[in-house]
Amino acid sequence: MTFAKDYKEIYRNQIKKQIRLNQEHLQSLTHLGSQINFEVDPPKFPDEDPARKVFFFDIDNTLYRKSTKVQLLMQRSLSNFFKYELGFDSEEAERLIESYYEEYGLSVKGLIKNRQIDDILQYNTFIDDSLPLQDYLKPDWKLRELLIKLKKKKLGRFDKLWLFTNSYKNHAIRCVRILGIADLFDGITYCHYEKPIEEEFICKPDPKFFEMARLQSGLSSFSNAWFIDDNESNVESALGMGMGHVIHLIEDYQYDSENIITKDHRNRQQFSILKDILEIPLIMGDNAFHHSAIAIKEMEEIEEEGETVNWSKQQINVQSS
Ligand SMILES: [Mg+2]
């Protein structure tokens, strides 16, 4: 018991120390794009504009690459929380983390359902706020250039670029500030870890969370929106909500140099698989097949839940950037 208490104390002190370092680092940032320009919790929804086009971006493993290894850092952080804060041994901690992720899509939902934590925000502070992100992420000027272009007529014509994340606002904003892209976004829809545990915890892929993002961004119809995420369930949900173009980012996608665009002609929806977020220009409207432009077109019928969806599949060979 004493040992467990000691470890918990050491663990908590380490967390506190790292959070202090992270805060100091964040305050010291002066590089381009290190400050946000939008209001984080506006008091009311903007008016819906039928002409408004919004691009929704997931953050973790999307705005920065999976290969940055931030995910491993998160897993370690989660594992330490289960061990030192909740008192599980290593094996049980790993088993629970895995089963919660599989069952609920987010570990915190499992902890809430099983009443293993009583303060969700404190959990989030221990996990996300204590990550030494500054050791793993740095400003991404190529991504910055892409995001700037997405608002311009020539490439994307988007009225708003919107952060749409299952993390809490602290982590989300810290990520985009370090990446040097914070000033390019128009708002954020994030998970409310600060809510009392009795209230429903809503996150992706829940359609209610998508509806929240629609209202907060002032989007009139999902068909006017683009969406990018690395998580399959979120991608499926975005398609189900009728997003105009849904991109599944799979960094280690098995096809070496090809990305795929499919179109559902009846619902005017598009779905793409990209290996790198910087490839977005290749799937943009008329520009989609310029560059290396080898498109193989084939029609196929996909049976989905008893409904026939008429998709056409196009593979594009991506050799230019
Ligand atoms: Mg993600």
Quaternary: single chain
Which small molecules are bound? magnesium ion
Given as residue ranges, the uncertain stretches (5+ residues, pLDDT < 50) are 286-306
Q: Structural class, from helix and strand content?
A: alpha/beta
Q: Which strands sit side by side, in order, in the main sheet?
A: 3-2-1-4-5-7-6-9-8
Number of helices: 9
Structural commentary:
The chain is of the alpha/beta class and 321 residues long. The chain is 36% helix and 17% strand. The chain has a 9-stranded mixed β-sheet, with helices on one face. Helix 2 (70-85) packs across helix 5 (120-129) and helix 3 packs across helix 4. Residues 286-306 have low confidence and may be disordered. Bound molecules: magnesium ion (MG). Magnesium ion binds at residues 58, 60-62, 229-231.
Question: What can be said about this structure in brief?
Answer:
With 321 residues, the chain is α/β, with parallel strands linked by helices.
SSE inventory with pairings:
Blueprint (H helix, E strand, L loop, with lengths): L1 H27 L25 E4 L12 H16 L4 H15 L2 H7 L6 H10 L11 H10 L9 E5 L4 H10 L8 E3 L17 H11 L7 E5 L2 H10 L3 E5 L8 E7 L4 E6 L20 E10 L2 E11 L4
Parallel strand pairs: 1-2, 1-4, 2-3, 4-5, 5-7
Antiparallel strand pairs: 6-7, 6-9, 8-9
Helix pairs in contact: 2-3, 2-5, 3-4
The site of magnesium ion has 7 residues, from loops.
